[in-house]
Amino acid sequence: MKRLACLLALLGAFSLHADIATYHVARATASPKLDGILDDACWRTACVVDGFALLGGADLPADQPSSRALLTFDDDAIYLAFDFAEPLADRIKAAATEADGKTWMDDGVEIFFNPSGDRQRYVQLAINTLGVILDGIKEGPDGKMDFSWNVGAKAVAKVGKDAYQMEVRVPFARLPLDGPTKDWTFHLARNRRVTSQHLTSLKSMVSGFHELAKFDVLKGVRPVGYNVSVRDIELGQFLRGANRAGAQLRNWGKSPKQIQIRYGMAGQEKQQKLALKAGATIDWTGLWPLNEKDAGKEFSFTVTVAGRIVQRRTHAVEIVPPVFSGLERTAFYLRDHEPLCLWLPLNLAGGDGRDGVLHWAAVDAKGKTVGAGQTLVRTEPALIRLYWNRWLPGSYLLRCRLRLAGEAPITFESNLRLVRNPWGE
């Protein structure tokens, strides 16, 4: 029975990965010039990915135009070239003109890289024929794709009479690398909007571009100077207060490394230097402040080793949520012999673990203060509970004042209506 179980497990594993292809990529002797013309010497020796199929497994039409991709790399980046026949080139759609626009709705390509090979963390690039790039990163299977992330890629395309070509450079420094010798997994796709086709490079049967378990394997990508890997990156909550950044750093090399970490909002970055022994792993954390005035700025996290950036993440802070976002609701039932509990969410980053004090007062329709108190608040996203007894139905004004050490008080007011419970509870 045990042998049968093992055999079935092996057969299951084989069937799961039977259609996963393995590709080998070689280092370029000279980096390509990004001009959308595939005449660089490196493309003649590059890894070839062809045989694109329709997403979902339907048969391709007999007259389907060809699709081919090429891959190579140098010390600092991985390069891709796409060579797509397109007899309907005059109908190519390219509506997105700004970075992180809806490029996937246009004719173009999509690139998916899982550089650690763990089939958990991966990046996506969607690029149209104008060279406009949408890029995002997903840090794990339970996370969401973060489109505020910027990989720093560049793309140039040339559209001809019956075809188009594209060249793309993706720097290693912003990818989630995890060691200099890891095999990658990847997926390439073509959006052919002129005929509403979605094509995939995968040999496995897939119904969507993000089926990470079925990505193909890419062997041979060997970045130079990236012996320190940075993973489990947390930039912070991006709320007012002390945000906590963190990451795990590992030295894969055979000698100690001096590491410099720079992090914070633009113009307010902090710096920290670390020594990392050969083969060692450390968990790093750092605090950085965020205020309302930082809205519209960019946060950055950069790890440098021997003058080379080995990891860089950025996050555009469009808004900083107000500390008080309002009561969960403004009308409540009164219950006999029970205190009334209000929940007041706070948008505060609590990386430094400071406590605050929330003072509150309730004013009736005549302007008389009918209740007051204070609550100790941990400065992190929290719910504040305010209790009081023997209230009468009616309308009130709730006034709150939050005091944090070393800061001016933060105030908040909200209308409040209390209603007698019709069930007499």
What would the keywords be for this entry?
Immunoglobulin-like; 1 helix; disordered N terminus; eight-stranded mixed sheet; mainly beta; 425 residues
Which percent bin holds the helix content?
under 10%
Radius of gyration: 28 Å
Q: What is the CA–CA distance across the termini?
A: 62 Å
CATH level-1 class of the largest domain: Mainly Beta
Q: Would you identify the regions where 5 or more consecutive residues have pLDDT less than 50? A: 1-17
Query: What is the number of domains?
Result: 3
> Tally the helices: what do you get?
1
* Strand count: 28
How much of the sequence is in beta strands? over 45%
Structural class: mainly beta
**Shape descriptor:** elongated
CATH architecture of the largest domain: Sandwich
The biggest beta sheet is recorded as: 8 strands, mixed
> What is the fold-level CATH name, i.e. the topology of the largest domain?
Immunoglobulin-like
Q: Return the string of H and E elements.
A: HEEEEEEEEEEEEEEEEEEEEEEEEEEEE
Mean pLDDT: 89
What's the gist of this structure?
With 425 residues, the chain is mostly beta strands. The protein has one helix spanning 2-17, and strands spanning 22-24, 47-49, 53-54, 67-73, 77-85, 108-114, 122-128, 133-138, 154-159, 163-171, 184-192, 197-200, 216-219, 228-234, 240-251, 257-265, 270-276, 281-290, 298-305, 308-316, 331-334, 340-346, 348-350, 355-363, 369-378, 382-388, 394-404, 410-420.
Description:
- The structure is a single chain.
- The radius of gyration is 28 Å and the shape is elongated.
- It has one helix at residues 2-17; strands at 22-24, 47-49, 53-54, 67-73, 77-85, 108-114, 122-128, 133-138, 154-159, 163-171, 184-192, 197-200, 216-219, 228-234, 240-251, 257-265, 270-276, 281-290, 298-305, 308-316, 331-334, 340-346, 348-350, 355-363, 369-378, 382-388, 394-404, 410-420.
- Helices cover 4% and strands 47% of the residues.
- The protein is mainly beta and 425 residues long.
- Mean pLDDT is 89; it is low at 1-17.
- It contains one helix and 28 strands.
- The strands form six sheets. Strands 1, 3, 6, 7, 8, 11, 12 and 13 form an eight-stranded mixed beta sheet that branches.
- The chain has three domains: 18-219, Immunoglobulin-like; 228-316, Immunoglobulins (Immunoglobulin-like, Sandwich); 331-420, Sandwich (Immunoglobulin-like), CATH 2.60.40.
